[in-house]
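Record type: monomer structure entry
Structure origin: computed from sequence
Chain ID: A
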Amino acid sequence: MISLRKPTILLASVVCTLVVFGIVSSRNENLKAEIQEEANHLLYQWETLEKTSKFVHKQNDTSDVALEPCTVVNPLTNQFFDLRPLGALGNDGLVQAWNARGYDYGRNFSIGICSTPLKQPQSLPESDFEGVTNKSEVGGYYTDTTGHKKSIGQISTTPKFRGRKLVLEYTDGSVCEGSKSDGSLKKSTILSFVCDREIMTKASISYVGSLHDCSYFFEVRTIHGCPTAAKKDDKAIIWIFLFICLCAVAVFFGGGFVYSLFKYNQGRQSVSHWKRNSFTAGVKSLAQVSQREEIYK
C-alpha cells in the first residue's frame, strides 16, 4: 500500500503539470492569433487612412484647377482667389461700377473690376474715349475739365501676383497728355487688392496716386481679396471630416484593444500564479499526508 502511494502521487503531479502547461500554451496560441488578427486590422485601417489623406491632399491641390476669368491661384501658397463678385461676372452680368475720389488730382474715377463700369458704352458721343477702339471694354475712366471722358485702361480678367501682392492691370487706355503725336503712350492702371475681413461693404477703392497723368494706382480693400476655396474643392471639407472620423475610430479601437490586452494579461498572470500556488500547496499537502501515514505505520 505504501509502495504504490508514492508513484501514484508522482504520476498525478506529472499529469497536473502537463495539463497546466497545455492550458497555458493553448491560451498563448490563442492570444498570439488574436494579436495577429488585430494587428492586421489596424494595418488595414492605417492604409485606408493614408489613401484618404492622399485623396484629400489631391482635392485641396489647386495647381490643376482650370481657372475661370477674374480668378487666380497664389503660386507661393497655392491659395485660390476669386474677384468675380466685385464685377459683372459675379453679378449676373449687371454693371458694377466703383467710385474713387481723386482728392488733389482734381478728378474722380469710375472703375470696374474685370468688367466695364459703363452701362451703355455704345450710346456715348464720339468725343468720349477718343483713340479707344472698343468702348465696351473700358475698365476705368474719369471726366476731364472739358467734360470728355478719358479711359485709364481697358479691362483685364487675369489678376496676377507680384510676390504676395494681388494686382489687376488695365492697359491701352486713352492717349496720355503730352505724349508723341503717334499716340504710342497710353494710360494704364494698377489695382492692388488688400484682404480686409472687417470691412462692412463689399469693397472700398482708394486712389493712391498717378505718374505723369498717364499711370494710375488704386488700392482695393475687400473680403474678396482674401483666399477662398475653388469650386472643385467644395467637397474637400466632407473628405476632411471623414478623415478625422476615421482617425478617431482607429484611435478608439486601437486604444480599446491595448487596454483589453493589458487587462487580459493581468488576469492571466493572476490565474497562472494562483494555479501555480495551488498546485504547489497540493503537492506539499500530499507529501505531508504520506509522511504522517508512514509515521503512524
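Annotation 1: The longest strand covers residues 203-211.
Annotation 2: DSSP finds two helices and eleven strands in the chain.
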